[in-house]
Amino acid sequence: MHRLYHRDADDLLSKAQTKRLIERTIASIEGELRCKVDFDQMRLQDRPISIDVIVPYKTTGKTIASPIDVRAEITKELLEEFAVFGEMRPLQLKVVCTDSTTSADLTSLGPEFFYSGSSQVPLTEDYAPFFSNVSAFGRLDTATHESLARWFRKHDLVDFGSAVMADEDAVFIRAIYHPVQRFAYFLFKPTYKDLQDDLEEHLRSDLAQHLADRSLVVSARNEKSTLADRAVAGRVEQGVNEFTGEAMVAKRGGIAGALLQNPFMGDILSSVEYVAHKNQDRIDKYGYWGLIVFVWIPFMASGVLVGAMLGLVARMPFERVLAACMIGGTAASLTWAYTARGIIEFMERYHAEAIIPVILLIAVAFTWLKIRDNRIRRREELFRDSMAFFSGVSD
Known about the structure:
Keywords: Membrane, Transmembrane, Transmembrane helix. The protein folds into three domains: about 1-100 and about 230-240, Alpha-Beta Plaits (2-Layer Sandwich); about 105-225, Orthogonal Bundle (Helix Hairpins); about 250-390, no CATH class. About 55% of the residues lie in helices and about 15% in strands. The protein has helices at about 1-5, 15-35, 65-85, 130-155, 185, 190-205, 210, 225-230, 255-260, 265-280, 280-295, 305-315, 320-350, 355-390; strands at about 35, 45, 50-60, 90-95, 155-165, 170-180, 215-220, 235-240, 245-250. Helix 4 crosses helix 6 (about 190-205), helix 11 (about 280-295) runs antiparallel to helix 12 (about 305-315) and helix 11 crosses helix 13. The longest helix has about 35 residues, at about 355-390.
């Protein structure tokens, strides 16, 4: 956990650097998505417990990605960059299409892909090249749909909406599929990326004579896939009750990454980190000796685990955190041991040994309730502040 949470000050991204990283990442996939991001209107909220981003964009004549596709692809790329830079805070992203219409709703070749500016062509113009192009596009459209039908049958999939669009430079194909087999959620193994690559290879082979020098752009996704599936997130947190939203954490390898990506352990560690952030001002004020006292005090929401996290969050050197946890932990162990001994002797004196299991159960229940309360308060704060940040922005 030290390697995951503790980084030197030079390795930490400032708010300005985080913003530049996000802008650079989005700019790098803007061309692939065939949309135009309005970076002047893009907004960022950098918090200790999350990074919230609003991305407004406009579609172009070549856009085949829906807002859901745009959000999934941007989230995926950002999480990959966060993993490289060791950024483990949850990401909450909202994309806003500022257009009134989008070409992603088309299901076949639209007239704008055949010919542009035809109303300005003189009546004496030779229309043979125009109709030749229309015929070529028509053959491409037919061949593409036939090829898609064969691909759906090959993988035993149902077509839930395919779009085929083209111009003089590229052919754009979007496929939304759904597995036919029963219990597909458990049994259907191929990922959307595997099938998307396979579809692209299949179409390149079938449409070789129609593509000529044009590039092929393919988008494929499972109709039942979630944003988290497509973004390849390490862990996902969902809003509850009136606090809605979806926060995703970058995927990390190793034991620490496996712990954080496990829903149960991830919740506990995130709650511990939340408590550490809440108490950071005390450690900033009292430093090393304050951390020892924090670890030593025998109350819930303190202790070695929270103290270690708190020291790392406060940028304290690892050796001092280790020493403070050892000293405070030893003092806490002695305090608890003598306290328990006194309680047991008192109960034996009054023949109340039967109450000991009840006291243990109460202690366990109180600990569980405290962890649960911290988890609920963290999740409410995580999504409440994000909802306030996103409010007033139309989808």
